[in-house]
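In the design runs reported in the main text, the only information available to the sequence generator was the tokenized backbone. The following block is the verbatim input for one such run; it is reproduced so that readers can re-run the procedure and compare outputs position by position.
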């Protein structure tokens, strides 16, 4: 694509306002997949299609799981709305209420955005999506987490993007396998041997993820040449089957960085 084509495409992109229920994103991803938000990938994906006018993140940022992501969010916006509720009652509803108020006020008061991107799985947002579409003639894109997004909300949106994608999920499991093996090497030295079964057990327990998904990721890594099976002698007659990492192949596949430390 030439430079003039890129410029034309940039001007053709519709403007978008983004509202992120970060509690939904963090907690659902952690509880269902053992994963953390890919904030950078999220913005890169949206930026390819839209000109981002405004971005708001909502949540109780006194929670460590949310607070740990603040610096990453600040790379893209300072509109971080802390919805901490002094009362212990209806904490999640409190975040939804504040986020809904921002959306309604935005469409009435701010510079016009052609598209509204709402990251939430909560059915409470069905009405505002219908309002934006039917009354304000906006395109509405809903982002949500798999197995944690209201079917009603999904059906009323113009477009629904469910995360994590299969590629993101597979990539994540491969990375945590490499991290586990790297930790073992760092702790015990490079002569430490690890087996397939033991690696699956350690990775699934440490990261609280399904061992079947770890197994699938490791099998893919063998096919890619990232993991290698070897037979090692432990004594005069004793042998075990171990796995080793081809770190260059891991880097070539975007799973590892040369200077990475765990």
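Verbatim output:
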């Amino acid at each position: 694509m030439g430079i003039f084509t890129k410029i034309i495409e940039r001007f053709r992109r519709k403007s978008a306002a983004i509202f992120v229920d970060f509690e939904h994103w963090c907690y659902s991803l952690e509880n269902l997949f053992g994963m953390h938000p890919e904030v950078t990938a999220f913005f890169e994906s949206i930026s390819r299609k839209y000109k981002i006018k405004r971005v708001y993140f909502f949540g109780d940022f006194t929670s460590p799981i949310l607070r740990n992501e603040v610096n990453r969010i600040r790379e893209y916006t300072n509109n971080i709305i802390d919805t901490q509720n002094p009362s212990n009652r209806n904490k999640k509803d409190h975040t939804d209420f504040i986020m809904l108020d921002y959306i309604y006020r935005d469409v009435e008061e701010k510079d016009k955005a052609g598209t509204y991107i709402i990251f939430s799985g909560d059915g409470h947002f069905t009405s505002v999506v219908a309002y934006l579409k039917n009354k304000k003639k906006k395109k509405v894109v809903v982002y949500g987490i798999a197995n944690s997004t209201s079917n009603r909300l999904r059906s009323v949106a113009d477009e629904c993007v469910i995360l994590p994608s299969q590629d993101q999920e597979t990539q994540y499991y491969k990375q945590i396998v490499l991290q586990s093996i790297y930790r073992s090497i760092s702790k015990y030295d490079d002569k430490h041997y690890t087996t397939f079964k033991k690696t699956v057990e350690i990775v699934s327990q440490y990261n609280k993820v399904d061992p079947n998904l770890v197994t699938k990721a490791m099998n893919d890594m063998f096919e890619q040449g990232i993991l290698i099976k070897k037979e090692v002698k432990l004594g005069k007659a004793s042998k075990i089957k171990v796995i080793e990492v081809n770190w260059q192949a891991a880097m070539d596949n975007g799973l590892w960085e040369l200077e990475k430390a765990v």
